[in-house]
Specification:
Structural class: alpha+beta
Strand order of the largest sheet: 5-4-6-7-1-8-13-12-11
Helix content: 25-40%
Number of strands: 13
CATH topology of the largest domain: Peroxisomal Thiolase, Chain A, domain 1
CATH architecture of the largest domain: 3-Layer(aba) Sandwich
Distance between the termini: 16 Å
Strand content: 15-25%
CATH superfamily of the largest domain: Thiolase/Chalcone synthase
Number of domains: 2
């Protein structure tokens, strides 16, 4: 394995105060609380209360990550933001994060890789830093699903899955001076657009005019404006993609699964992650999870779980972490990190 050329020097996360248990989901969903937990592992999630923007969540997590790194907004060279639920259709949330943080006029990139957004962003940040383009990069991942999810019975297989939240990391050319953080030892991401229509939220269709006229493209406005998912197809593809990415990452780094202390997977469905662990023959106790209480926070799920696990002392110095993701696109990937 080659020496790391980039390091995570600070982590942070933010979850809204409002907690929505399965039994408290909107009545029109006609949800079965016990059934949701059985199928997904999710018992509750955090949803915002009132008028809040995705960028607001990202800023809270980013401030925590910067504080952990011992840096201020003025020290940053670049921001990479990942979300599927931006404040508006355009611009992306990167510029709003830049402005709200009070960072200087640095570049702000926006990544649209959904549940793989953190790994895609981490790969970009690592490449920028390794190439000497930037020295200190903020990766901010945030999702505000609760305002965009359908609230009628036709959405009961999707809406209960999702929560609001944000996670952020600071990626630097040198390790944190006081120790802690992670070396970024490997990142590899993949895509397959042939399955893109199996998990999407259209909102509009630019091939027709007017571009938000649902009558030209689907059977109802609900199908146009809210998320659509072929759950069984995504389940199968997620298991196949994540286990293959894990094997490729370990092989490329000359490691065995026994060399890994923790697996930090994207939190989409607890049963997906259990199946991936079973296929890999991973001891169940090595698979970290928080989906039971936060749901699927898409791009934010991995950095939230990483940040929580470090904060709680679960991931400690010397521990090697394998992170896996799969999501809409289809996109997926793996990263190997080592806690310093």
């Amino acid at each position: 394995m080659t020496a790391a050329q980039a390091f995570i020097t600070g982590l942070g996360h933010f979850l809204p105060a409002r907690v929505v248990a399965n039994a408290d989901l909107p009545a029109p969903l006609n949800a079965d609380p016990a059934g949701i937990t059985k199928r997904t592992g999710i018992e509750r999630r955090h949803w915002v209360d009132g008028k809040v923007y995705t960028s607001d969540l990202a800023v809270e997590a980013s401030r925590s990550a910067l504080a952990a790194a011992g840096l201020g907004p003025g020290d940053l060279d670049c921001i990479i933001a990942a979300t599927l639920s931006p404040d508006y259709a355009f611009p992306g949330i990167g510029v709003y994060i830049q402005h709200k943080l009070g960072a200087p006029h640095i570049p702000a990139y926006d990544v649209r890789n959904q549940c793989s957004g953190f790994l895609y962003s981490l790969n970009m940040a690592r490449a920028f830093v390794a190439a000497g383009v930037y020295q200190k990069v903020l990766v901010a991942c945030a999702e505000l699903h609760s305002h965009a999810m359908g609230k009628t019975a036709m959405h009961v297989h999707i809406t209960p899955l999702f929560g609001d939240g944000a996670g952020a990391v600071v990626v630097c050319a040198e390790p944190a001076p006081g120790g802690g953080g992670f070396s970024i030892d490997h990142v590899r991401v993949y895509s397959d657009g042939s399955g893109a229509d199996r998990l999407r939220q259209r909102v509009w269709d630019i091939s027709v005019e007017p571009f938000m006229d649902w009558t030209q493209v689907c059977d109802s406005s609900e199908a146009m404006w809210h998320a659509e998912m072929d759950g069984q197809f995504i389940f199968r593809k997620a298991v196949a993609g994540m286990q293959a990415a894990a094997r490729d990452a370990l092989k490329e780094c000359g490691l065995a699964l026994s060399d890994v202390d923790w697996v930090v997977p994207h939190q989409a469905n607890l049963n997906i992650n259990k199946t991936v662990g079973s296929v890999l023959k991973l001891p169940p106790e090595k698979m970290l999870s928080n989906i039971q209480r936060v749901g699927n926070t898409t791009a934010a799920s991995i950095p939230i779980l990483l940040s929580e696990s470090v904060q709680k002392g679960v991931i400690r110095s010397g521990h090697r972490v394998l992170s896996l993701a799969f999501g809409s696109g289809l996109t997926w990937g793996a990263a190997l990190l080592r806690h310093l």
